[in-house]
Amino acid sequence: MRFVLRRLGFYLVAFWVSVTLNFLLPRVMPGDPISRMMSQSQGRMTPEQVVQMQALFGLDNRPILQQYIGYWHSLFTGEMGVSISRFPTPVSEVIASQIGWTILLGSTALLIAVVIGNLLGILAAWRRGGVLDSALPPILVFIGSFPYFWLAMGALDVFGVVLGWFPLRHAFSAGATPSLSPEFIGDVAMHLVLPAMTIVVVSVGGWMLAMRNTMITTTSEDYIVMAEAKGLKANRIMFRYAARNATLPAVTNFGMAIGFVVGGALLTEVVFAYPGVGFQLLSAVTALDYPLMQGIFLTITGAVLVANFIVDMVYVRLDPRVRAS
Amino acid sequence: MSATDASEVVILAASAQPEKVPAEPLPGPRARREGLVRSLLRNRKAFAGLVIIAIFLLLALLAPVLAPGDPSLITSLGAKAPSTEHLFGTTPKGQDVLALTMWGSRSSLLVGFVVGLAATAIAILVGLTSAFYGRAIDDGLSLVTNVFLLLPGLPLLVILAAFLPRGLGTVILVLTITGWAGGARVLRSQALSIRGKDFVAAAIVTGETRFRIMFREILPNMASIVMITLLGTVIFGIGAQAGLEFLGLGDPSVVSWGTNLYWASNDGALISGYWWAFVPSGAAIAFVAFALALINYGVDEVSNPRLRTARRRPFGTGTEVAR
């Protein structure tokens, strides 16, 4: 329980840091991008919206502490301002309409990478020095050296433009109406293949190496020798005895990987014009849409923090040692 | 420090009286570093990596000689596939891709190494201070480090870069802010284990200044970890700079591998199948990152053969942020 509370406290501090950062950035930065943005959109805003925006960005000359309290207040009431580039949609609505695509892309890629990477790692460690163990890691490290988005560009060129196997951009074909029909789901899946695969290809090497290394440590334990002596089948020893115990560090990596996938998804989304929050973040930056930018940053950070907290909880459940201490 | 520690140290210091140097368990930092470099040159992986890096550095230095003139000058009509006239072809705008790639290496390598050095310096400072002083200072610094590790790197980069004025300085600053934390955590745990060694306690008793203990006693003993951190952050710096610039958050008038990719994507090289416009810059980033990772493996193998297992480091921490 103490562990849970400590972690919770830590995530609260992290959240406080990101909110405070978000609060301070427009206020301490040199130059005045905000008022430029405000003057750009002034004509289309209602007076109330102008007042709200000024409060959000500290242009209303209140004492800074009062502004800070007001900022927190508006956060908790879900007021993140109005998007400038998609005026007059509130920021929260813009994000809500797009976060699903990012979650779909990110979780698909993460799950595939974790499953494939861990399986490869288990096999490589099991047949240490074999083909899988000696040939694959260097190749994967080399592939992992390529910038994420560049591999995405390459995949787009080869599989999209030259071979024409997969669609080039967006999450579903133009004209298709979102529904739960098999055609639409198939369409979405086809659009998902290239973006997800590029993330998988880059990240799978890390999973494999981590799993391989822990597996090597685990397979030298006495209980493995014991299991072999009992004459258990190799498969059973490999998965139920060795791999099962070696997955624990992978759970910790999973938490770290969530942030990594969000970042990776951001660039991949840009290359494929995939309509998730990452793609939206970039258009917000280009359009000087500061409220949307900040809203997206807070949403992503919040999501990563919550995901990490859940991972921690799972860890407590899996590892009795944490509960004991 | 506790009373028992102190008494042990006194005995230790007394037994070492004749030489009067109880606090030098290893040859001086200089000798050790030379040893590291020499054994790195003997290591196959590290040698290959060093050769690749040397070639890229040479190309960057010789860019004005090999491809004289402004690389962004338009020298042909539209996108041309590689030919004898333009070895790497030309961009949709009509610029020579080879020249752009060569000139681009200057900004990319510069930013990568500056970010690497700055981030490593912060990581050393934070890690050492944290491990040496312990208690409240350690708790505080560890908290900051962990928060920075947890905040999603690329969105943070984007939002920082969006508020700061565009330019190379901003890119370096932003990448340093987001790149130091991983190294700090590794260096702290290493420094912590060295902090517990007898020779540090002896140095404290002999009255060496804290600064000297941190930087002359502890730091030289973790040279290889510092090296690994440095290489990791350089990889991160090069990759993340390319990512930022690809998103259009750098200075688009500077020629670098990132901006080359930005323009390739913006000018529609991707959709039109002009692969030669974006392949060289990306491949260059990959080769440099791979070479640095090779050196990293080399340092790992040379400094601690057992370190090869159970750690995700070599192509790890930093690079995860921005790919």
Notes on the structure:
The complex is a heterodimer of chains A (325) and B (323). Chain A is globular. By secondary structure, chain A is an all-alpha fold. The longest helix of chain A has 39 residues, at 234-272. Chain A is built from 13 helices and no strands. With 323 residues, chain B is mostly helical. Chain B is 67% helix and 0% strand. Chain B contains 13 helices and no strands. Chain B has helices at residues 3-15, 29-42, 44-66, 97-133, 135-150, 153-163, 168-179, 181-195, 198-205, 210-218, 223-246, 257-266, 279-303.
Give a brief rundown of this model.
Chain A has helices at residues 2-28, 33-41, 47-57, 64-76, 91-126, 131-145, 148-162, 182-219, 222-229, 234-272, 277-286, 290-318, 320-324.
Strand content of chain A: under 5%
What is the percentage of strand-forming residues of chain B?
under 5%
Helix content of chain B: 55-70%
Task: Summarize the main sheet of chain A.
Answer: none
Helix content of chain A: over 70%
Cα gyration radius of chain B (Å)? 23 Å
| Strand runs of chain A, count | 0
Order of helices and strands of chain A: HHHHHHHHHHHHH
Q: Please state the average pLDDT score of chain B.
A: 78
Layout of strands and helices, then pairs:
The complex is a heterodimer of chains A (325) and B (323).
Chain A lengths: L1 H27 L4 H9 L5 H11 L6 H13 L14 H36 L4 H15 L2 H15 L19 H38 L2 H8 L4 H39 L4 H10 L3 H29 L1 H5 L1
Helix pairs in contact in A: 1-12, 5-6, 5-8, 5-10, 5-12, 6-8, 7-8, 7-10, 8-10, 9-10, 10-11, 10-12, 11-12
Chain B lengths: L2 H13 L13 H14 L1 H23 L30 H37 L1 H16 L2 H11 L4 H12 L1 H15 L2 H8 L4 H9 L4 H24 L10 H10 L12 H25 L20
Helix pairs in contact in B: 1-9, 3-4, 3-13, 4-5, 4-7, 4-8, 4-11, 4-12, 5-8, 6-7, 7-11, 8-11, 9-10, 11-12, 11-13, 12-13
